[in-house]
Design a protein that fits this description.
It is a single chain. With 372 residues, the protein is α/β, with parallel strands linked by helices. The chain has 2 domains: 180 residues, P-loop containing nucleotide triphosphate hydrolases (Rossmann fold); 127 residues, no CATH class. The strands form 2 sheets. A 5-stranded parallel sheet has the order 4-5-6-1-7, with helices on both faces. The longest helix is centred in the C-terminal third of the chain and has 27 residues. The N terminus is likely disordered.
């Protein structure tokens, strides 16, 4: 029988209720509408940028569905937060709440599955921890809730195996797939679920949360990291942990003094920075491949570069910017061309282009754009 004991990779979220998930009004509205409808959907896809509250919201929905004394305030329903089921959910120990994630492969009964790196959510994990478990009766509550983290990393074979479960689950089973991009799921998977999109968070809100959650961070640094994170609190927290504000200062200095003579040296330094950052990603996820860690690191760097050029567009439009190191010689047209060049580089890297050559080409292109 699949185990539902809390694993080391699970992070309990203390006292989280639906009302605690802020700035996701559309998701709140759709769930409340579903709660009062005659038939609550049996499968959802919560999709949107990482770090904006999708999993937090999924756990809050599960908490409400499992709650022994749900509360109604006006037109909204929420968990009571104090009953036995709510307490178990908060502790990460509710037997009817199943969190599914890549690292569960290490707890699979087959030693050959345990011996693999958990790069994706494969069919073995999905069969054992989801498909084989949905037929079991709830242990405590009226339903069982499965939250599948990083659902866009479910392999096509695993998604195909899951289709019947998504289409005809037991009445006591609710499945919530959490994905950064719904279009990375098969169309057959999406068609069997209600899709609920999540938006980026306001930068001011992210900055305020950083000053509360991160010890010793000042308002200026929190504002900078919130801007760089583009509305993702999770990404901003990672940036704070990795000291990305200092890295951005170096990137801004490179771009502000960029010319054809310095492009090669700057390119080499960016690749070195990406290597260091990739090590940080791998330290947080031992199952992450070198290539995936490098893509994450380069994505952060290129995103920061695009944000720096974007600040010139904002400045030209008269909107204030918290980013340092603006270059007076870059007009809006040049900034826009630079952002397009960065986007093209991101696309090539996503197709496994050779990173040093790709960054080399980008820096020389940016240097050319900056010359008048």
């Amino acid at each position: 029988m699949p185990s539902n004991k809390s694993k080391p990779e699970e992070t309990p979220l203390q006292n989280v209720r639906l009302a605690d998930v802020l700035h996701q009004s559309r998701a709140q509205r759709l769930i409340q509408q579903a709660l009062v409808s005659d038939r609550f959907p049996h499968a959802f896809v919560f999709h949107g940028p990482d770090g904006v509250g999708k999993e937090m919201f999924a756990r809050a929905v599960a908490k409400l569905l499992l709650c022994e004394s749900p509360q109604t305030v006006g037109d909204t329903k929420d968990s009571c937060g104090v009953c036995r089921s709510c307490t178990l959910v908060d502790a990460g120990n509710h037997p009817d709440l199943h969190l599914i994630f890549r690292q569960l492969a290490a707890h699979h009964p087959d030693s050959s599955v345990r011996g693999r790196k958990a790069l994706d959510l494969g069919v073995d994990v999905i069969r054992h921890f989801v498909i084989d478990a949905v037929g079991l009766r709830p242990t405590v509550g009226p339903v069982k809730v499965f939250i599948i983290r990083e659902a866009d990393k479910i392999t096509p074979a695993a998604q195909n195996a899951l289709l019947k479960t998504l289409e005809e689950p037991p009445e006591t089973t609710i499945l919530i797939l959490v994905a950064s991009a719904a279009d990375r799921l098969l169309a057959t998977t999406r068609s069997r679920c209600q899709l609920i999109g999540f938006a980026s968070l306001p930068s001011q809100f992210v900055a305020e949360q950083l000053t509360t959650l991160v010890d010793g961070i000042g308002v200026d640094q929190a504002t900078l990291l919130a801007t760089l994170a583009q509305g993702s609190l999770g990404r901003a927290m990672t940036y704070a942990q990795d000291g990305f504000a200092e890295s951005f200062g170096e990137i801004a200095a490179m771009l502000s003094g960029l010319d054809r003579m310095s492009a090669a040296n700057h390119s080499k330094r960016l690749v070195e920075m990406a290597k260091d950052s990739a090590n940080n990603y791998k330290s947080r996820d031992k199952n992450l491949s070198d290539a995936a860690a490098r893509r994450e690191a380069l994505g952060d760097i290129l995103g920061a570069m695009a944000t720096w050029y974007g600040s010139h567009l904002h400045a030209a439009a008269g909107r204030s910017q918290p980013l340092p190191g603006l270059r007076s010689g870059i007009d809006p047209e040049s900034a826009a061309r630079s952002i397009d060049a960065i986007s093209d580089a991101e696309s090539r890297l996503s197709q496994n282009a050779h990173a040093p050559l790709c960054i080399d080409g980008l820096m020389f292109e940016l240097a050319s754009v900056a010359v008048f």
